[in-house]
């Protein structure tokens, strides 16, 4: 169901290749200011709004069992809906970051570097799900480093 | 505690102004491919990973009561941690979108246009929290349009 609103396609042709986090940050700030909604955009209001949108996103997948990549069997309408919920999460995330004074783009680039240090290619490669799982579970115990199964712990986690 | 890893600052100087969703999408794809982790990056695995990161993000705010914008009283270490969790949510969101075949930047621009139609400036402005609240609660009943308190329902919601 492509009830595309006027301008939604033509107005953004080409432009979407290079959508920056900064441009979304600015658009969300304008959106709120124009409506006098800055008063509602406090950190925890935005966090809960984000959580709500994550719930809506989860709802789309909830009873499906695992789904193949690219969602080959999904109706166009369902894919549109998915795009909207993914976007709502993104927009609230961008706005929350802004309101907290965090430069999200900069933070993401830095996190990518931390991830690469935490999960070195040579240790992860090979598709061992054991390794993947132990690395993964280690992730959730940031505060206790020096776990035996993780050869990288304690040396490369940066700010963790 | 700015234990910045080598290159995390110098390597991204200037660049972060224009961080695009497309560049993050590519970096996450490279990250997974280099580690043979594509096998783990199925839609629902990624969605659950995202939900997990949203939990970690929520944890940061959980017992604080409302916090002022810009987080003036937060320790630098806590702000760093916040930046990392915001980034984890973003990175899994970008990866989930990619794996689902959704162009997140394009979808976000379109959603911003839908939001502007759903919440017209002239109807929202004035800071009436009643209006804000009724618009807001209306949002969570997408499937039942024509709600009386929402003059825009049924006319401008596009694909909703
Ligand atoms: C374990 C794992 C991590 N990451 C990346 C994305 C997140 O930014 C970060 C999360 O790592 P951790 O679970 O250690 O917090 O690492 C990823 O892409 N795929 C994975 N299978
Ligand atoms: C009600 C409301 C909406 N939005 C924007 C961000 C989301 O992308 C979308 C969510 O709208 P809804 O709650 O109607 O789904 O609208 C926003 O920024 N601030 C608000 N106070």
TrEMBL record, chains A, B:
Gene3D superfamilies from the UniProt entry: MazG-like
Gene Ontology molecular function: dCTP diphosphatase activity; magnesium ion binding
One Pfam family of this chain: MazG
Domain of life: Eukaryota
EC number: 3.6.1.12
Cell compartments where the protein resides: Cytoplasm, Cytosol
Transmembrane intervals: none
Region (Disordered): 126-160
Cofactor: Mg(2+)
Reaction catalysed by this enzyme: dCTP + H2O = dCMP + diphosphate + H(+)
GO CC field: cytosol
Chief place of localization: cytoplasm
Any one GO BP annotation for this protein: dCTP catabolic process
Chain ranges of the NTP pyrophosphohydrolase MazG-like domain: 42-108
Swiss-Prot/TrEMBL keywords: Cytoplasm, Hydrolase, Magnesium, Metal-binding
Subunit record text: Homotetramer.
Function: Hydrolyzes deoxynucleoside triphosphates (dNTPs) to the corresponding nucleoside monophosphates. Has a strong preference for dCTP and its analogs including 5-iodo-dCTP and 5-methyl-dCTP for which it may even have a higher efficiency. May protect DNA or RNA against the incorporation of these genotoxic nucleotide analogs through their catabolism.
Stated name of the protein: dCTP pyrophosphatase 1
Organism of derivation: Ensete ventricosum (Abyssinian banana)
């Amino acid at each position: 169901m492509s009830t595309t609103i006027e301008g939604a396609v033509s107005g953004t042709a080409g432009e979407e290749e290079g959508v920056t986090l900064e441009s979304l940050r600015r658009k969300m700030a304008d959106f709120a200011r124009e409506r006098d909604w800055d008063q509602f955009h406090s950190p925890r209001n935005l966090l809960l709004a984000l959580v709500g949108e994550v719930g809506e996103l989860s709802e789309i997948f909830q009873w499906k069992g695992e789904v193949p990549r690219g969602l080959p069997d999904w109706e166009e309408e369902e894919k549109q809906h998915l795009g909207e919920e993914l976007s709502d999460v993104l927009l609230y995330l961008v706005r929350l970051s802004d309101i907290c004074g965090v430069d999200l783009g900069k933070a993401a680039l830095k996190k990518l570097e931390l991830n690469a240090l935490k999960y070195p290619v040579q240790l992860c490669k090979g598709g061992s799900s054991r390794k993947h799982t132990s690395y993964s579970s280690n992730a959730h115990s940031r505060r206790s480093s020096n776990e035996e199964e993780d050869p990288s712990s304690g040396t490369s986690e940066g700010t963790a």
